[in-house]
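Q: My labmate handed me this sequence with no annotations at all. I'd like to see what the chain might look like in three dimensions before we decide whether it's worth expressing. Could you predict it?
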Amino acid sequence: MFFIDAHCHLDSKEYEENVEIFIERAFESGVRRFLTVGCDLETSRRAVMLACRFEWAGVFASVGVHPHEAVHYAQGLPDELLALAEEPRVVAIGEAGLDYYYDHSPRDVQNHVFAMQVDWALELQKPLMLHVRDAMDDVLVLLRSASELRDLPELIFHCYSGGFEYLDAVLALGASCSLAGPVTWKKNDSLRELSAQLPAERLLLETDCPWLTPAPFRGKLNEPSYVRYVYEVVAAARGCSLDALTRQVDENTDNLFGWGRVYV
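A: Here is what I predict for the chain of 264 residues:
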């Protein structure tokens, strides 16, 4: 069985010079696709470099501006960032979105930079990786308004946390939901129930490492090899075999990112 980490941050300082060890360990544990995600120009630059360096392991990149960093991009997305999206191993835009929990950037600026990235992803015909925290209402307003004017790009709600309250609205946009370590945490029965009811073709799985470490390693540094624990919990919740789940996620991610199937 092979696994896919649909959202990770291999450029993080927690890995630094040991990144090859983490990637090799994940590869040996069966991970065959990694999407390492940029949050600003510098991290996007590093994500692309890692995707090129570890092409043999199945590392791909996403480039964009996280809402925490939006304040630095209020005047527009820099040419270098736009150019990075043209690199062959860049398969998505983001992570983009809104974060009203921390509010590291003013909310109007977050919305402005988010809207720019919706347009950017649509222009490039690449999926948009979404970060949403305590801001689902405004995210849906912006996306619905955009959809009234033109098509939307493919959407992935990374580390989906909107619960059943927002699930119908998210699915109505044609979006996919990616689940991470929190689905394994002891008190998250509602998230496991949601994972069981997600349409199979809309389901992705991730680590978001180095954060959100799954059980049984919670409290320790997260890494891509731990995505297996997310798979195991979701397979149990859905009442399906681990093999069936890995094949479904493989199909889903290839449909979104076009990076080639693991199971051929």
